Amino acid sequence: MSSPFPKSSSLPGAGRIVVKLAPNNISAPESITYQYPLKLISPSSVAEQGSVLVFLLSYGGGLVSGDQINLSIDIHPQARLSVVTQGHTKIFPSAVQNIVTRQNLSVEIKTGAALCLLPDPVQPFENSIYEQIQIFKLAASASMCLLDWVTQGRTARGENWSFRRWVGRNEVWSAADAPGAKERLLVRDAVILDSANRPAGLPSLRESMDGHAIVGTLILRGPMTRTVGEFFLAEFSALPRLGARDFRSDETREKDEAAPQSPIQRWRAARLAEEKEKQILWSAANVRGCIVVKFGAATVEAARNWVGTMLLQEGSIEQHFGEQALMCVR
Prior knowledge:
Layout: E1 14-21, E2 27-34, E3 38-41, E4 52-58, E5 62-63, E6 68-75, E7 80-84, E8 89-91, E9 101-109, E10 114-117, E11 122-124, E12 129-138, E13 143-151, E14 165-174, E15 184-194, H1 205-208, E16 214-221, H2 226-237, H3 250-258, H4 263-277, E17 281-287, E18 290-297, H5 300-314, H6 316-321
Parallel strand pairs: 1-6, 4-7, 5-8, 6-9, 7-10, 8-11, 9-12, 10-13, 12-14
Antiparallel strand pairs: 1-2, 3-4, 13-16, 14-15, 16-18, 17-18
């Protein structure tokens, strides 16, 4: 007996989010579609939120071996979108070595529009194989805040960078705004963590991570992230440098240390002490107008607290996208 219902035109794991600016100047979802194992949920938008909020989920809390996710996002001019998750994206083990779990994201951000993508980290289980490609195309005045991070696995089960392979690639492109113009690649950030195919003589993946439980990348681009990008660059410049010498006399140093500190100086001193205690290493650089921050930490919570503290201290992400955009890094 044939089904009376028409066949679906979408493929398993396919999804699409389209966000527009409503007449009342509030960002609103125009359409949200998805197919198993992908799931997208968006609460009602209100003016106080600052952006449309979408939860990126999967049935069962993770991706099973061989799952394929293909999500496209289109943000219309002046609209804003925040994408978050409800916990670690778990990558379950691959039963066979040639079965790869994949997740692809394609994003177009139009003139004056903005995306804030601050999810929980990816958690690959032992013997899992995972690849993700995220491509972002931004108009000249578009903005983006992207966080991409991966953990060592399930520490409660003794996992410590024991997955087979994790590959992540982020590309940021300047869109062709005028007729005849060409798209221009601004940043291509690729990370390959492979424990199964390491050349002879090199340390294991676990040894090469040097005690870090999590590593990640934060990419900032556009006018809405300009001040937070400058904040990261300034704080990185203020970090103590190896081999740096203090040429002050003992008397001058004692006076400087006894002098009252400003709130930002006290916050920085406390943060530096925590970075040393929690083994947080990080760097920041301007790459073709994109601020790229690389970081690692001894624990997942230390990294989460560090990212959240930095973004909350500067404040512009919460201002532009609303406090709900930061729920995964609080």
